[in-house]
Specification:
Oligomer: single chain
CATH topology: L-arginine/glycine Amidinotransferase, Chain A
Distance between the termini: 33 Å
CATH class: Alpha Beta
Low-confidence stretches: none
Number of strands: 17
CATH architecture: 5-stranded Propeller
Helix content: 25-40%
Number of domains: 1
Length: 349
């Protein structure tokens, strides 16, 4: 029997996108002037298509944001789309500490999984409590929120909207998240709470500079129920070549629920980008965000950007592709999808 629960695909209709704004108490403190314009670009792009929810620990900055973004929305004939909430936060990765929304019998339900900063790598107590702050502020209206005593980040799972999840064993099976549970127990839990009929596990693939233990949203993404795009490294001298070639072979072996192969599209491999200390940063074109009628697409000011945009335009011919320069975001080892969390239709009004 099919579960009444379902994790919608990202292309399903949305009511809003959630952003957790950077502030001086985060790791962005030394580069706020560079990163805030990226958040502003994302915010304005979202407002052209749906509501925007922003939480920020610094009330004065939040008030200024509310004023500026409301003015932008009104000037573009989109009044009433901005929601702001003052709330404490350790950092800005809304994809991973934000609520994951399922439908249960067609009705949206917010799931508040535990967040422990990718296995205790960084402070996380404020982020873990953020969803409760948002719900208490009435952002989600009457939509119920259910706590789930299981560590799970939104960036670690992809849904086709039909009961199939795509994930990585490197992340979900890392002992620092849920040490008491093995793969079978995790599959059972995800079946119960997310309605997953099938889970496709990738055992290969990584990005240098990534703190997440190989989140799927940096490597491979559902573009449609039968279509997966993924990062591919053609340079045999690159440190990523072997792992990503092995990941590609795994994707080629995956089958849809009816037994047929997936359509696969390789994304370009951006030129290597390093921080001031020479460490490689995790630039990836897979970290895009699908919203209503558009795709917000990360670019990095490298030679492959135009090709990547063209490929994305071919994948999503009915959606506007909105490039956003995310070079500043990868300085803290994440990109566009990592700082956003979509909220499905029927929640934020």
């Amino acid at each position: 029997m099919t579960s009444p629960r379902l994790l919608p695909a990202e292309w399903a209709p949305q009511s809003a996108v959630l952003l957790t704004w950077p502030h001086p108490g985060t790791d962005w403190a030394d580069c706020l002037a560079e990163v805030e314009p990226v958040f502003e670009d994302i915010a304005r792009a979202v407002l052209r298509h749906e509501h925007l929810v922003i939480s920020c620990e610094h009330v004065v900055r939040l008030q200024a944001l509310e004023r500026d973004l409301n003015r932008y929305a009104e000037e573009n004939g989109l009044p009433g789309r901005v929601r702001t909430v003052p709330a404490p936060a350790n950092d800005t990765w809304a994809r991973d500490h934000g609520p994951i929304t399922v439908t249960d019998g067609g009705v949206p339900v917010l799931l508040d999984f535990r967040f422990n900063a990718w296995g205790g790598k960084f402070p996380f107590e404020k982020d873990d409590a953020l969803n409760s702050h948002l719900a208490g502020a009435g952002v989600f209206g009457k939509t119920p929120m259910q706590p789930v005593e299981f560590v799970l980040e939104g960036g670690s799972i992809e849904s086709d909207g039909l009961g199939t999840l795509l994930t990585t064993s490197e992340c979900l099976l890392t002992p620092s998240r849920n040490p008491a549970l093995d793969r079978t127990a995790i599959e059972q839990l995800l079946s119960e709470v997310l309605g997953a009929d099938r889970i496709l596990w990738l055992n290969h693939g990584y990005l240098a500079g990534d703190d997440t233990d190989s989140h799927i949203d940096t490597l491979a993404r559902f573009c449609a129920p039968d279509h997966i795009c993924y990062v591919s490294c053609p340079d045999v001298a690159d440190e990523h070549y072997s792992a990503l070639a092995a990941m590609e072979e795994e994707l080629q072996e995956f089958r849809q629920a009816d037994g047929s192969l997936y359509r696969l599209t390789a994304l370009p491999w951006p030129d290597a980008i390093h921080d001031d200390e020479g460490h490689r940063l995790p630039a990836t074109y897979a970290n895009f965000l699908i919203i209503n009628d558009a795709v917000l697409f990360p670019v990095y000011g490298v030679a492959q950007d135009d090709e990547a945009i063209a490929i994305m335009t071919g994948i999503f011919p009915d959606r506007k592709i909105v490039p956003i320069n995310c070079r500043a975001l990868i300085q803290q080892h994440g990109s566009l999808h990592c700082v956003t969390m979509q909220i499905p239709a029927g929640v934020v009004t």
